[in-house]
Design goal:
Blueprint lengths: L1 E3 L7 E7 L14 H4 L55 E9 L12 E6 L10 E5 L5 E5 L1 E9 L2 E9 L3 E7 L2 E10 L2 E2 L5 E7 L12 E4 L4 E5 L1 E9 L4 E9 L3 E8 L2 E9 L11 E5 L5 E6 L4 E5 L1 E9 L2 E9 L5 E6 L2
Parallel strand pairs: 3-9, 10-17, 18-24
Antiparallel strand pairs: 1-2, 2-17, 3-6, 4-5, 4-7, 7-8, 10-11, 10-14, 12-13, 12-15, 15-16, 18-21, 19-20, 19-22, 22-23
Amino acid sequence: MKAWLSPHNCGVLVVFAALWVALIGPAAAQMTLAQANSSSSLFSATPSFGAFTPPPARGGDGFGGAGGVLGPPSQAPVAIPPAAAPMVPAGQVALLLSARFGTQASPITGGLTWRIYAAKAEQGGKYRLLREDKSPAPTVVLPAGNYIVHVGFGLANAVKPVTLRGATVREEFDLPAGALRIEGRVGDARIPAAQISFDVFSGSQFEPGDRRPIAEHVASGAVVVVPEGTYYIVSNYGDANSVVRSDIRVQAGKLTDVIVNHRAAIITLKLVNEKGGEALANTAWSVLTPGGDVIKESIGAFPRVVLAEGEYRAIARNDGNVFEREFTVVPGVDGDIEVQAR
């Protein structure tokens, strides 16, 4: 299913692609949009960007919060064989754990953090951490009894009580998570990854209050794993005023490809003695809106700036003299703006 949102309204094209969420290898971030629309597994790899991963917990910690960024896997993944029940001492039980992104998905093969807590809270309401494991499918041997098991992948979490009795107990967790993969374009041209970045926030941009991003400086083409829900993306093309904000809905078990359309262009500023002449060095530049708001300031013979569509005024200061020129930015039309020193 494809949903189109006009770039004149919010600058976003959203492509919802059905997902068999199985993490098998490190190539997810290299998928093309054509592959996303195919029938192959869209999560055939560990995502290259897992938003935030819970930090290592300490004894007495609660169920953990967001921590560092999940980076790309360092080696090719290995398929997880069915866990065999180990030999356990009398009175102990082997707990075999695994997780997946939905009932139709294969087991997740990396990026998981497992924590096992005592079933009863201590004084102060905290649950004592008993074990922590970052294996995709760990086997944990514990005394028979009741426990609370928590698993996290990025911002997606699942928790449930587990009772251990007998020799072996198998528990499979379903993480209610989906994913975002974002890129930016001007018209049909893809914006180079080095020139654009994205911040992801929970909720809608129209909700009141200040919020911290759940993922910052996301690279173009990276995959961000998040719980099902509404998010908004802030896309920054360059470092001036080409900023697009867009709401998006992430569904569990689906990869949402987001294309942010910037109506902007790359402008090179030059102060010249005559049309087509050599740019003068040591020039201080200011780019202003028609109302006088400063958009960008820089120093150099020919600075480049990404500007959103609209009307501007360039002011050049050189050797004690001030020169200026009005100009118009047309989306996708990169070019030089010459200010003549006269």
